[in-house]
Amino acid sequence: MAITQLIYVSDLVKGQEGEIGAILESAVRHNQQDDITGMLLYREGNFLQVLEGERAQVEATYQRISQDRRHHNLMMLTEEEVPHRHFANWSMGYRQLAAEDVRKFPNYAPYFQFGFQSTKLAGEPGIALDMLEMFSKGML
Ligand code: FAD
């Protein structure tokens, strides 16, 4: 079965920083039921997330996420069919990027140093997947 992979960026609503734990708990709980896998990165008030699974489930999940008032300014970067899951081990992996990551990955720093740069990432959507994969490595 082909897998649909959807990547988007969004902005956390100011004052909602304390909600990230609840967001993750909810994401993992729903995704386990819906056979969705993926990764969520956070940096300086921005999210970058990939969802993958059966198309109808991915689209229903994105629809629910897009109505969540804890974040806004969602911008979908890609939605495409891929032959296999890239984040099969994660109902929803999570990592908050730090200044140390900026130093360690200078090639990617312009895309996340001051939060995820949606316009830059929209112009080069392959970079978003590269970053999600790179930062998921070593987390197991
Ligand atoms: P619960 O998870 O049981 O909600 C618990 C509490 O969270 C509620 O009482 C309320 O205080 C708060 N809450 C829930 N929904 C909202 C809302 N829409 N607006 C404001 N407060 C709310 N869901 C997934 O299923 N998979 C994902 O991968 C996923 N990723 C997310 C990534 C981000 C960046 C964000 C912001 C949300 C994500 N969510 C994800 C959560 C999703 O948006 C819905 O909130 C969730 O699916 C609703 O679950 P629930 O109805 O069981 O509520």
Which range does the strand content fall in?
Answer: 25-35%
Portion of residues within helices: 25-40%
Q: Compute the gyration radius: what is it?
A: 14 Å
Instruction: Count every helix, treating DSSP H or I runs of 4 or more residues as helices.
Output: 6
Low-confidence stretches: none
Overall structural class, as computed from helix and strand content, comes to: alpha+beta
The CA-CA distance between the termini, in Å, is 26 Å
The biggest sheet, with number of strands, parallel, antiparallel or mixed sense and barrel status, is: 5 strands, mixed
Q: How many DSSP E strands?
A: 5
Describe the global form: globular
The SSE string, one letter per element, is EHEEHEEHHHH
Instruction: Tell me, rounded to a whole number, the average pLDDT.
Output: 95
Lay out the secondary structure.
Layout: E1 3-12, H1 20-34, E2 37-43, E3 46-53, H2 55-66, E4 71-82, E5 93-96, H3 99-104, H4 109-112, H5 118-123, H6 125-136
Parallel strand pairs: 2-5
Antiparallel strand pairs: 1-3, 1-4, 2-3
The protein binds flavin-adenine dinucleotide (FAD).
Identify the notable features of this structure and list them briefly.
140 residues; alpha+beta; five-stranded mixed sheet; 6 helices; 29% strand; binds flavin-adenine dinucleotide
